[in-house]
């Protein structure tokens, strides 16, 4: 029986939204939208302003609950759960405007992303202090390694408030990586970032994908989408419009019309 079930699990999308609807009063921001992120894939989600991309992203990330429809992670229904259910199932997200703990150091911000440590229990600090101390040392070592990965090691002792917008996005990425996610939902990583740091972000995202991380990217920077994503899903008016390779999508007349206002958004 286990042999029979293994291929089915392997073919199950890592993250899947089916028939998602999100209604705010009389407005359907997302209207019967389905999307699937495959294992090891980098998927782009694009569309004109008002297309419903951010709302769909929030449904997948757990910061909004669907009016109807389902969200699954590796086949587990997480539709009614929040972001904590997502991270427990190996899915982390970034925000378009990162909000680090401004007065905490850069290193402390990364450490805040750690999950399920013994020291979180008051009793374990008394009953197993050696284990707690060992886990804390391992966490610091891991956080420093991640800061090196995002090239922020030289700022580890500085308060996060001194970071630029692009550096804050790199810090947020490092904090998410502390939880060892299988998938990362990236919310407009290029927004407000200078060209030099944007190249670094693109390079780090590519490296994470090479390491096996699945990436869902919502982004207005089409050059970045084309460089990173093998497949793109397009929304307009809260609904699925089309999908395909970036070059094919960019030449699709329905997509061009949507961006020019031919499809209501």
Description:
This protein is an alpha/beta fold and 265 residues long. Strand 9 (231-236) and strand 10 form a beta hairpin. Helix content is 40%, strand content 22%. It contains eleven helices and ten strands.
Key terms:
single chain; 265 residues; alpha/beta; six-stranded mixed β-sheet; 11 helices; 22% strand; disordered N terminus
Short description:
This protein has 265 residues and is an alpha/beta fold.
Mean pLDDT: 89
Cα(first) to Cα(last) distance is 48 Å
Strand order of the biggest β-sheet: 6-7-8-3-9-10
Spatial shape: globular
Q: How much helical structure, as a percent, in the residues?
A: 40-55%
State the low-pLDDT regions, or none. 1-8
How many separate helices? 11
| Approximate strand percentage | 15-25%
SSE pattern, N- to C-terminal: HEEEHEEHEHHHHEHEHEEHH
The structure class reads alpha/beta
Radius of gyration: 20 Å
Please describe the topology of this protein.
Layout: H1 2-11, E1 15-24, E2 27-37, E3 42-46, H2 53-61, E4 68-73, E5 76-77, H3 83-88, E6 91-93, H4 106-111, H5 122-127, H6 129-149, H7 165-177, E7 183-187, H8 195-210, E8 214-218, H9 222-228, E9 231-236, E10 239-244, H10 246-251, H11 253-259
Helix pairs in contact: 6-7
